[in-house]
Every structure is written in structure tokens, then in C-alpha cells.
């Protein structure tokens, strides 16, 4: 559907009926979701461990504010890092 400016607007679909999925499928989905979260955490842990090793090899000290910016794929040095006491 086009608005006044001629731009096509997306409308959300209307749910007209729904049915519960079988418990077996629900269990498979929950197990898959749990495994994905565990795998993601394990991979992040390995990347962090490797980054610490590489920083040590290149003389970048985390205590001086150096850290891995995973999204930008760079080592960055930061100042005034807020301390999380939780």
C-alpha cells in the first residue's frame, strides 16, 4: 500500500488462527537454542583468550587500557573505562 508520498508501506500481517506445536518440536527448539547460546559463549571465550595471547605477544597490556574491539576487528586503547562492580 502506498502512502501520500508514493512510498510503499509495509503492513504487519494479521494473525487469524494459531495452533500449539507438539511438545517434541518445542523440546528440539529449546535444546537447539540452548546449544547455540553455549556455542556462542564458548567461541567468544576462545576469541578473548586468543586476543589476550596476541596482545601479550605484541606488548599491548590490558591493564593499560588495551582491548579487542571484536566488531571492528581492531585492538583499541581506551581511557576512563567504567568499572562494573556487579
Query: Secondary-structure element sequence?
Result: HEE
The N- and C-terminal alpha carbons lie at a distance of 49 Å
In one word, what is the shape?
A: flat
Number of strands: 2
Q: Please, how many helices?
A: 1
Provide the β-strand percentage band: 5-15%
On the 0-100 scale, what is the average pLDDT? 90
Describe this structure in words.
The structure is a single chain. The chain has 86 residues and is mostly helical. It has a domain at 23-77. The protein has one helix and two strands; from the N terminus they run αββ. It has one helix at residues 23-58; strands at 66-69, 74-77. It has a two-stranded antiparallel ribbon with strand order 1-2. It is flat.
List keywords for this structure.
single chain; 86 residues; mainly alpha; two-stranded antiparallel sheet; 1 helix; 42% helix
List the topology elements.
Elements: H1 23-58, E1 66-69, E2 74-77
Brief summary:
By secondary structure, the protein is mainly alpha-helical. Helices cover 42% and strands 9% of the residues.
Amino acid at each position: 500500500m502506498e502512502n501520500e508520498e508514493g512510498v510503499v508501506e509495509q503492513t504487519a500481517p494479521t494473525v487469524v488462527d494459531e495452533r500449539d506445536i507438539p511438545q517434541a518440536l518445542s523440546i528440539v527448539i529449546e535444546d537447539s537454542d540452548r546449544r547455540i547460546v553455549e556455542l556462542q559463549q564458548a567461541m567468544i571465550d576462545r576469541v578473548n583468550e586468543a586476543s589476550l595471547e596476541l596482545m601479550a605477544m605484541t606488548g599491548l597490556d590490558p591493564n593499560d587500557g588495551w582491548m579487542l574491539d571484536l566488531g571492528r576487528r581492531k585492538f583499541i586503547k581506551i581511557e576512563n573505562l567504567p568499572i562494573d562492580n556487579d
